[in-house]
């Protein structure tokens, strides 16, 4: 896959997020911070979770590249097949437990801070794509906790599916 195509896929994710933030900023602040019931996440917690997931993905890839600058195996057909199954599952009404660390939130969350952190994360991803050589785009750069190792395109596809899953959840909470 070429870098420009990869950047376009990432821009789709950014645009989806921008659209969600436009909707969320029109909602009463009390609703954003209020969990729908005991043990459930508020809209701000969901946004924080997705942002933290993407930031953690970026940190993981940066660390992986620093320890393996000369090469990693390319992702396999099986990785792609597992990703398709995960994407289908994320579109289903099934609920999942977040991986350890991605279910912990600061005591006080602010929409503006989440957005600013996310914008910095996005810039980090775009810089990562820019500095990766074309032959590294197929490398197993990210290890998803359930389906295993993914290349850069697969990682972005997962991020889009993960975002979409939680965007639907947020929209349900706003109704």
Short account of what is shown:
This protein has 175 residues and is mostly helical.
Relevant terms:
Four Helix Bundle (Hemerythrin (Met), subunit A); 175 residues; 2 strands; 63% helix; globular
Can you offer a commentary on this structure?
The protein is mostly helical. It has a single domain, classed as Four Helix Bundle (Hemerythrin (Met), subunit A). Helix content is 63%, strand content 3%. It has 6 helices and 2 strands, in the order H-H-H-H-H-E-E-H. It has helices at residues 3-24, 29-33, 43-67, 77-91, 111-131, 152-174; strands at 142-144, 148-150. Helix 1 runs antiparallel to helix 5 (111-131) and helix 3 (43-67) runs parallel beside helix 5. The longest helix has 25 residues, at 43-67.
SSE map:
Blueprint: H1 3-24, H2 29-33, H3 43-67, H4 77-91, H5 111-131, E1 142-144, E2 148-150, H6 152-174
Antiparallel strand pairs: 1-2
Helix pairs in contact: 1-5, 1-6, 3-5, 3-6, 4-6
> Strands across the major sheet, in which order?
1-2
Helix-residue proportion: 55-70%
- Cα Rg: 16 Å
Q: Supply the CATH class.
A: Mainly Alpha
Sheet having the most strands = 2 strands, antiparallel
Fraction in beta strands:
under 5%
Number of domains: 1
Shape: globular
Number of strands: 2
Mean pLDDT, rounded to whole units?
92
CATH topology: Four Helix Bundle (Hemerythrin (Met), subunit A)
Unreliably modeled segments:
none
Task: Write down the secondary-structure element order.
Answer: HHHHHEEH
How far do the termini sit from each other?
39 Å
| Structural class based on helices, strands and sheet pairing | mainly alpha
Q: What's the architecture, going by CATH?
A: Up-down Bundle
Number of helices: 6
């Amino acid at each position: 896959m070429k870098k420009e195509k990869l950047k376009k896929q990432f821009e789709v994710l950014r645009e989806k997020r921008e659209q969600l933030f436009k909707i969320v900023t029109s909602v009463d602040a009390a609703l954003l911070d209020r969990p729908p019931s005991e043990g459930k996440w508020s809209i701000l917690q969901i946004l924080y979770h997705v942002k933290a997931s993407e930031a953690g993905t970026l940190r993981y890839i940066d660390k992986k590249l620093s320890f393996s600058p000369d090469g990693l195996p390319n992702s396999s057909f099986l990785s792609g097949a597992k990703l398709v199954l995960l994407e289908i599952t994320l579109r289903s009404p099934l609920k999942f437990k977040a991986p350890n660390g991605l279910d912990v939130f600061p005591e006080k969350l602010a929409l503006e801070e989440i957005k600013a952190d996310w914008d910095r994360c996005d810039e980090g991803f775009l810089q990562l794509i820019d500095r990766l050589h074309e032959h590294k785009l197929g490398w197993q750069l990210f290890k998803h906790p359930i389906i295993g190792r993914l290349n850069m395109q697969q990682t972005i596809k997962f991020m889009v599916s993960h975002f979409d899953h939680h965007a639907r959840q947020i929209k349900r909470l706003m109704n």
